[in-house]
Specification:
66 residues, mainly alpha, 3 helices, 2 strands, 44% helix
Length: 66
């Protein structure tokens, strides 16, 4: 399954609204994200289906805290 930009946005919104427990968050991460075997390290994790790096799909605005 390859997620569209719209689906990724919806997934992010649901995660932020639902405030999942640590176990739920871990489950979502395991379902969609994997390590990049060619580039080790958590900073290089990628989406399982498309191989797109996680850092490339997370807008900087979602990383800000107020």
């Amino acid at each position: 399954m390859v997620l569209t930009q719209h689906e990724l946005h919806d997934l992010e919104a649901r995660i932020l609204q639902a405030s999942p427990s640590a176990a739920e968050a871990d489950s979502l991460i395991a379902r969609y994200i994997e390590p990049n075997p060619a580039r080790p390290g958590v900073a290089e994790a990628r989406l399982i289906e498309s191989g797109v790096p996680v850092w490339a799909i997370i807008p900087t605005t979602s990383l800000r805290t107020t």
